[in-house]
Amino acid sequence: MRHWLPGLVIAASIASPLHAQTPDATFFETKIRPVLATNCYGCHNSAMAAPKGNLVLDTREGLRSKLESGKPDESRLLKVLSFTDPVVQMPPKGKLADSILADFRQWIAAGAIDPRGAAPATAVASSASQYKGLSLDEGRKWWAFQPVATKPAPNVAAAHGPRNNKVDSFILAKLADRKLAPSPKADKRTLVTRAYADLVGYKPTFGEVQAFLADQKLDAYARLVDRLMASPQYGERWGRRWMDVVRYAEDNPTSEATNPPYPFAWRYRDWIVEAINADMPYDRFVKLQLAADLMPNTKRSDMRALGYLGAAPVYHHDLRLSGDVIGGFMTDDWDERIDAVSRGLLGVSISCARCHDHKFDPFSQKDYTALMGVFASTTRAERPMFAVDSKTEQSYMLLQRKLFDLSYSANLLVNETSTFTNPSEKSVKWKSVIDVLKAQANAALAKYPQLVATLELYWTPRARGGAAPPPPPAPVRLAAGAKPAPAAPPAAGRGGRGNASSTDPYMNAVFEAARDVDVSDLTYTFITYKPGETRDMPVFRAGNYASPGAIVPRGFPAVLAKGDTNFRQGSGRRELADRIFTDSKGLAARVIVNRVWAWHFGQGLVTTPSDFGTQGEKASHPELLDDLAARFIANRWSLKWLNREIMLSATYQQASRPRADGMVADQANALLWRQNPQRLDSEAYRDTLVRAAGILDLQVGGAPGDLDDSTYFRRAIYGRVSRARSSQMQTLFDFPAPTQTAPNRDVTTSTLQQVFLMNSEFVQNLSAAAVKTATAKVTSQPQQVVALYRQVLARNPTAAETEAALTYLQKGTLVRFAQILLSTNEEIFLP
Amino acid sequence: MSIRLSRRHMIESIGGGLGAVGLAGLWSDVFGAEPGAANLAHYAGPKLPAKAKHVIMLYLNGGPSQLDMFDPKPALFKYAGQRPNAVDLRTERTTGGLMPSPFEFKRYGRGGIEVSELLPQLASVIDEITVIRSMYTFNPTHTPGRAILHTGSVLATRPSIGSWVTYGLGTENQNLPSFVALGSAPPGGPQTRAGFLPAEFQGVGFGVADPDPERIIPNLRNKLIDPASQRIDMDALLALNQAQEKSFGHDQFLEGRIKSMETAYRMQFEALDLFDIRKEPQNIRDEYGPTAFGTGCLLARRLVEAGVRYVNVEYPGGQAWDDHSNLNNNLRKRCPDMDQAAAALIRDLKRRGKLDETIVVWGGEFGRTPVSESGSGRDHNPYGYTMFVAGGGFKGGMAYGATDEFGFKAEQNRVSVHDLHATLLGQLGMDHTKLTYRYAGRDFRLTDVHGEIVRDILA
Question: How much of chain B exceeds pLDDT 70, in percent?
Fold first, then answer.
C-alpha cells in the first residue's frame, strides 16, 4: 500500500538520510564516522581511562589533533592509515581499503567537517563506548523515543480549507505554509468505494453504492464507516494488514525434517481477525501475542495469539552437524524474533547490533544479546485448544519436543544408516529413551488420552519415507465451546509442502523453556529443553556463535528503558511485552499510528514505517503524529477509534485527482494536498474480482485453502500463506515475503499480471460467473450490458458506453465483455 | 549515491515484465523509446571496467564430486582405505577411508588442465574454462549450502545474486524479466529470492521439463479465443481504460498499466517464439542434447541474447548430484548429458560472439569428500571443491588454486563463495562493497562484510 511512485519515495529518502544535515556533515556521517567507529573507537574512545596512545577519536577535538585539516599530504592521520608513517600503522588488523583512504583524503582536503560535539559524546556514561552512533544519552533525546503528548491545533485561516477534526488543522497548516490548497471533497461514489476497500477490503456492489448515494443525511458517511467497522469483514481486512507486520505464514522457508509446516497457524490468523473485530486495545493485542501464556487469567482461546512466536520462521536443524553449527542456527532463529519485535513493534532495527554495536542508532550488541536471552528461554510447542491443567500441559509440551527430536533422529537411522558410525548402538539407546518418554507420557497425561494419542506416532515405528514425523493427527473431537472449523480442502496442484494444515484442536504456540545444544555425544548433537529455566546469552564476537564473550542478562534495550534494564520473571517475555507499553509507550504508539495512517493513505507520516531511527525518515507532520498517538493512547489504544478519526477527517476525504500546482510543488504528496490514488493490493483485488462475479464466499475463519485453485472463492486472507512458495496472485501482485516483517507493500506493474487477467482460467471462471449472476433475469442485450456494468463496476454505463458495448457484442460475447470489465483499470484502481 | 528509478522502469517493472524479445520495433512502438544500452539502475559505486553483461549459472544441485571431475588426487590410490589425520574433518555423516576415483584424468588444452574421462565435451572447450579447484563454503548441508551459494547467507531474508545483479545493472529488455531461473520444475527459494530487495527484482522461475513454451509459461495463451478475437477485446479494453484515465486525470499507474496491457498482448506471441527452443536448427538442438538440462542451457542462451541479465539453470531432478552411495555408476549415467549441454553452451556462445560478455558459472553448493561414505559414495564437503567460470573476461585455459593432498580442504589460493560473488560482480562492472541496499537500518551487500576479487583469474 505504499505510494506508487517508488522512485520518488526512494529518491526522497536518499536525499536526507541523516536528519537534515549539511552535505559535508553527511559525508562525515556516511563515509568517515562509520569507519572510525568500526576500526578505531575500540581502542581510542573518550570513555576509556587510558585510551591507546592517549588518542581519542570519538570526539571532534581528539580527532582534529591529528588531522592537518585541509592539507591531506601533511596529515599524520592519513599517513598512519595509509601505512606510510614510519612509526605507526593503523588499524592494527590491516590497511583500510583504498576507497576508504580516498574518502579520508577527500574529507580532510575539504576541511574535515566534523559535526560532532566539541566535548566527548557523553562525558559521564562509562557505557558510552558501547555505542558507535548516537550515544546512550543522545539516543535518549531522539525524537521518536520521547513520550507523546497532545499538541495544540495550529491556527489556520478558516478560508484555507475545511476542518472536520483536529487532524485537518495540522495538515492545513503545512499546506498553508507552502501556499497549497487542499483538494475538494471526493464525490460520494468515490467515498463509498474508498470506505469499502479500506475498511472491509473489497469494493462495494451496485446496491451498496446506491444505498449510500440515496442516504442524504448529514451523518451518512460517518454511519457508513461505523457500519463497515462493525462487520466481520473489517477484521479480515485489518487483520490481514497486521499479518504483514507479524510475517504470518503457515510453514517454513524450507520445511524440512526439523522445521515442518505449522498445521495450526491458521488459528493464530483467526485470533487476529477476532481480536481486531472486537477492537481489542492495541497494547493488550500485542502483549497477548508475545506473552499470552504468562498473563493472568488469559482465556484459552487467546493463547492462539502465541502463533506470533509459535509459527515464526525457523531453520532446519540437521542434528548431525556440530553443536556450533546447530547453535548458530538457533541464533539465526532468535535473530529473526529480535528483528520482528524491534522493527515490527518498536520501529527500530536492533538486529543491526547482532555482530557489533549499531553504527547509527543507540543500540549496543549488549542490548541485542539481552533480547536474545528472552527467545533462548522460549520454546515452540503445540498446545491443546481444550482446557488442560497447567502441569499436564507443561509435560505434554516438553514430551512433544523431546519425542520429536528423537523420532527425527531414529528415522535418520532407518533411512540413512550411513550417517552413523554405530547405528545399532544409537538405535538401542534412542529407543530406550523413547520408551522412557512413552511411559512418562502415559503417566503424566493419563487424564487426557487424546494428548497421548497425538504423541503415539513418535514411538510407533514408521515405514521408510521422509525423516519428518507428520503433525499430530489426534483423532479427537473438539472440546466444548470451541468453534468447529471447516475441514481443510484437499490438496490442489501446488505440491505437498505447506499443505499440512489441520483442524485438530491444537495451536502452534510457545512455552517457557530454555534451549541449548547438548554436545556430549561428539558425533551427534541433541537439543536440550529445560522447562521453567532461563538462558542468558553471551555476546557473540562478530556474531560468531563459536566465539562467545561476556554473558548478558535478559533485558530491555537500555536507551528505551526507564531504570533497570533487566528482566526477572522467567524468559522475560511478559516484561518485554509490558515495557514496550510503559518504557517505550510513546514509540510503540507512534509506530502503530503511523502504520495505520499508511494503510489509509498509502504512505505514512514517517515513510519508513519500520524504521524510526536515525536511518529512517523523519515525520512529515511530527506534531500531528504525536497528537494522534497521544489521543490514541487516551482512547484506550482503540484501532477503531483511530480508523474513524482518520477517515472522518477532511484530509482523508479529499479527491485524489492530480492537480498541476500540487504536482509541481509536492509530487510525492508528502503534504497531502490530495488523497493518494492507490492500486488494490493482492487480497483486495482478488476479493473485489470474485465479488464482482457475485460469488465471493464470506464464510469467516478456518483452515486455509489454495489460492491457485481457480474455483477457490473464499476471501484471499484464507488462502494458504507459504514461506517457500507464494500463490500466483500473491506473487504477481506484490504480496510481501512472509519470512520477515514487512513495512509496506510494493506496487509494481508487469506484463505477467496482464496475461493473468487475459488468459487465466481463474479470470475466465469469474467472467462466466459474472454473466450468470448479472443476466439471470434480463434478456435484451442493452439490459444485459447495463446489468453487467452494475455487477462488475457497480455503476450504470453511460449512453456512449452502452453503445460501444453493443457494437462490441456484434463480434464478441457477454462473457468476454465481462472479462474486459474485470480487467479494466477502473476495477483495480482506487481513486 | 542518489537512487532514482527511471520513469519507464517504474511503469514496466522487471519482475515478471515478460515480453517481446529482441524486437526493437515492438519496443519503440510500445514505449515510444529506443532500446536502451545497459543502464546502471541502482549501482552508484565506482564503475569498474565491465567485461560482462550477463551471467548463466549452471547449478548442479546436490554437490558434484570434484574428485571425479576436475581435481585428480593420486594420493587417494596410495592411501586408499586409510584415514590419515588430515582427512578427519567433520562432515554431515560418518565417513570411512579414502576412496580413489576410478576415472582416468588427462591433460587438455593450452594449459594442460586435467579433466576426467567423464567430461570429454567440457575437456574439448577447456581453453575457455577457468577451473577453480580451491572453492570453500560454510555449511555442509544442502539447504543452507544452497542458500549460501545463491545468496551468500543462510538467512531467508537475503536476496539471490541474480536479484542483486538485476538491481545493480537494471534491465536490457524492458519486456523480459531480467532474472530467470530454469529447472525441471520452476526453481524457487534462494535461487530466485529477492529477499529484502523490492519485489520487482525477484527471479522468475520456469519449468522446462517439457520444451513447449505454453507449458513453460503459465497463462501464456488464451485457450478460449483466437488472437484476432482477443485483439478485439484488447481494443475494447484499451478504449475503456483511456476514457477512464481521461476522466480521472493523468496518472502514472494508469498510463503504465495501459501500456503494459498492450505489451502483454504482443508478448504472448513473442514469448511463444523466444521460449521455443524447437525453433532452433536441428544441429544446434542435437549439440545441446534432447534433455531438460539441454533445453535449459539452450533456452538460457536465447534469453541472454534477448537481454536477460542472469539465468540460473538448475540440473533437473532435485538434489541430483548428491551421491552418498553408488557414486561411480551415478556419475557415469549423469555426466554425459550435463557435459554435453554445458560444453555446447560455451561453444555456442563463443560461435555467436556472446561468450565475451557472458559469464558461465558451473558448480554445486559444495563438493564431496575424498573419504568414502557407505563404501561407494562420498559425503558433502564444504571445505574444498571445484567450480568453474568461462567467458565474461576470465582467462580460460587455467586451473586456479589447489586442495590438499587428498582433495578435502582448499589450501592454495582459497576462494570462498563470497570471493566468487565479489569477482562476478566485478566482471559485471560493480564493486561488491558498493552495491548496497538499505534494509532494517543498515546497508546490506551480497558479500556482507566478506569477499575479495580473485584477480589472478581475470583476463
Answer: 91
- On whether residue A151 sits in a domain, the answer given is no
Which of B5, B250, B325 is opposite residue A658, by nearest beta carbon?
A: B250
How many domains does one find in chain A? 3
Q: Do A816 and B244 touch (CB under 8 A)?
A: no
Give the CA distances from residue A610 to residues A361, A590, A617, B109, in Å, rounded to whole numbers and listed in that order: 14, 11, 10, 56
Q: Output Rg (C-alpha) for chain B, integer angstroms.
A: 23
As a dihedral over the C-alpha atoms of residue A186, residue A187, residue A191, residue A192, rounded to 10 degrees, the angle is -170
What tens digit of pLDDT does each residue of B347-397 get? 999 999 999 999 999 999 999 999 999 889 999 999 999 999 999 999 999
Q: Among residues 144-163 of chain B, which lie with CB inside 8 Å of chain A? A: 144, 154-157
Taking only the tens place, the pLDDT of each residue in A630-679 is: 999 999 999 999 999 999 999 999 999 999 999 999 988 999 999 999 99
CA dihedral A220, A221, A226, A231 (to 10 degrees): 100
Alpha-carbon distance of A356 to A365, in angstroms, equals 6
- Residue A50: predicted pLDDT: 65
Q: Is B141 helix (H, G, I), strand (E, B) or coil?
A: coil
- Among candidates B155, B188, B265 on the partner chain, residue whose Cβ is nearest the Cβ of A332: B155
Give the pLDDT score at A496: 35
Which residues in chain A have their CB less than 8 angstroms from residue B226's CB? none
A15 with B2: Cβ contact below 8 A:
yes
List C-alpha distances in Å: B278 to B213, B282, B337, B350, B354. Answer: 9, 8, 18, 21, 21
Distance from CA of B82 to the nearest CA of A (A): 16
Tell me whether residues B156 and A99 touch, CB distance under 8 A. Answer: no
**ipTM confidence:** 0.81
Percentage with pLDDT > 70 across chain A? 89
Helix axes A622-634, A166-177, angle to 10 degrees: 180
Indicate if A218 and A268 belong to the same structural domain: no
Whether the Cβ atoms of residue A3 and residue A745 lie closer than 8 Å to each other: no
User: Is residue B33 less than 8 Å (CB to CB) from chain A?
Assistant: no
pLDDT recorded at residue A130: 45
Q: Mutation target for B interface from A735, A748, A795, A828: give the one with most B CBs within 10 A.
A: A748
Instruction: Give the minimum alpha-carbon distance from A612 to chain B in angstroms, rounded to a whole number.
Output: 9
Kind plus residue range of the DSSP H or E element containing A192? helix A188-199
- Give the pLDDT band of residue B2 (cuts 50, 70, 90): very low
**Residue A809 located in a structural domain:** yes
Name the residue among A332, A749, A756 with its Cβ closest to that of B253.
Answer: A749
Q: Is B60 exposed, middle or buried (0-12, 13-18, 19+ CB in 10 A)?
A: buried
Q: Which of B275, B268, B347 shows the shortest CA–CA distance to B306? A: B275
Q: Are residues A316 and A381 in the same domain?
A: yes
Instruction: Look up the domain containing A471 and give its range.
Output: 252-580
Longest C-alpha distance within chain B, in Å?
83
Q: Which residues of B touch A256 (CB under 8 A)?
A: 143
Start-to-end CA distance of chain A, whole Å, equals 13
pTM score = 0.82
Residue of A nearest to B89 (CA): A322
**Residues 6 or more apart whose Cβ sits within 8 Å of residue A737:** A723, A726, B157, B193, B194, B195
Residue A274 shares a structural domain with residue A209 = no
Distance, CA of A280 to CA of A273 (rounded, Å): 11
Q: Is A554 in the same domain as A408?
A: yes
Domain coordinates in residue numbering, chain B:
7-135+149-354+366-457
Is residue A402 located within the same domain as residue A461? yes
Question: pLDDT digit string (tens) for A512-547?
Answer: 999 999 999 888 999 999 999 999 999 999 888 999
Q: B378: which strand partners?
A: B372
The residue among A746, A749, A756 with the most chain B CBs within 10 A of its CB, best to mutate, is: A749
Please tell me the distance from the alpha carbon of residue A416 to that of residue B93, in angstroms, as a whole number. 9
